Amino acid sequence: MPSAFLPPDFDPKRPVALIAGRGNYPLITAAAIRAAGAPLRLIAMDDETEPALVDSFAAGERVTLNVGQIGKMLDALKNFGAGYALMAGQVKPKKLFHGLTPDLKAAAILFSLKRRNAETIFGAIAHEIEKLGVKLLDARAFIDDQMATVGNMAGPKLPTDTEYLEHGVHISREIARLDIGQGCVVRKGTVLAVEAFEGTDDMLRRAGSFKTDETVFVKVVKPAQDYRFDVPVFGLRTLETMKEARIAAAALEAGKVIILDKPAVLKQAKAWGIALHGF
Fold this sequence. Notes:
With 279 residues, this protein is of the alpha/beta class.
């Protein structure tokens, strides 16, 4: 089996439809699926998906749609004869329908939701996908080598005591439980910033406005994380923001947080003297 995150009954002969958002995540996932030998199709998002990824598919193996066209996406899955779908890349709920006219299926989904956030919106879309008989895969599938691992992964050792790291983990898990965010920055038992709607980079910049020696950025998953979507990701952009904000270290939940383009991230962290630790 090519990945520990695939279902036991995964059939490698059935097409996998990659629902691709922004950034390198879909590119890395597509390369991994191809390397595993599974038939691959692409559902690209207009003005979101990297053109290089779109161009790597034959015309009959791809479709491009606006983010609000959920009905068209479902039709594409049927036309592809997809057995599986996998969501990869940034398509945030605030972008999902903002400034666009949702189709009838999308409008019906929105109308049915009492609370509109990543979990409810993507969860409702996942339900529609699986009603077609298409299995929505764990977003970590095929990219096992991109996951955070336990212990020091790059750079120096953590610049703070274990008890301070445990404090950061506790705070991050609590805000994740409350559905506020999935990370925080702590320093010697003090919470400098927590992640909310503004995202990771802005949180790191806020934390960087304080004294930053022995700071640790902690990233976790939700207590009942749905790994089919909204899985936490750490990449070069986050590392660059940490450097700008003078955040000394990141602690990532092992086996659960994805490190995109992991070899490049670890190499750069080492060069910049930023500690990357898995717990």
